[in-house]
């Protein structure tokens, strides 16, 4: 079995996208490639896996929950899941529920770039009564409060207790 102690934080970024023209199995193949690439990185000492759905021209983002859960399950199957954490750079996490679901599917960090860009754009156009920085800080505070509320209603006091909760089944 694979054994390694965490010594330092080494990160690697993976694109959670696929090419639009790659056909009907493109999503499935992209998920398999993403999971295998993450496994290889973990076996080579990477301890922080950054999954990004930023898509270039002609690419389609993989939904963040699908990407995280696919990589998470693959790393469990091959016995290396505990050696890496996930950070998700995503455009599809907007509400506290979106964040809570990602944390429940084992994301340790979430960067909602699209929400932040929208807030900055609204501030630049004068549609907000606060600066972009203050708007983003207010958004982050509201999302954090939402996640805390969701967890507390479930009787959960730490994020570690919430990780992988969505994978448990009733006895």
Q: What does this protein structure show overall?
A:
The chain is globular and about 50 Å long. Helices cover 46% and strands 15% of the residues. The protein is an alpha/beta fold and 171 residues long. α3 crosses α5. It starts with 10 loop residues before the first strand and ends in a 9-residue tail after the last helix. A four-stranded parallel beta sheet has the order 1-3-5-6. α3 (96-104) links the parallel β5 (85-89) and β6. It has helices at residues 26-43, 64-77, 96-104, 113-124, 132-153, 159-162, and strands at residues 11-15, 17-19, 48-52, 59-61, 85-89, 107-111.
The dominant shape is globular
Number of helical segments?
6
Estimate the mean pLDDT confidence: 88
Strands, total number: 6
Taking strands numbered 1, 2, ... along the chain, how are they ordered across the largest sheet? 1-3-5-6
Instruction: Report how far apart the termini are.
Output: 29 Å
Oligomeric grouping of the chains: single chain
Largest sheet geometry: 4 strands, parallel
- What is the H/E string? EEHEEHEHEHHH
| Overall radius of gyration | 17 Å
Which residues sit in consecutive blocks of at least 5 with pLDDT less than 50?
166-171
Computed structural class: alpha/beta
Our estimate of the beta-strand percent is 15-25%
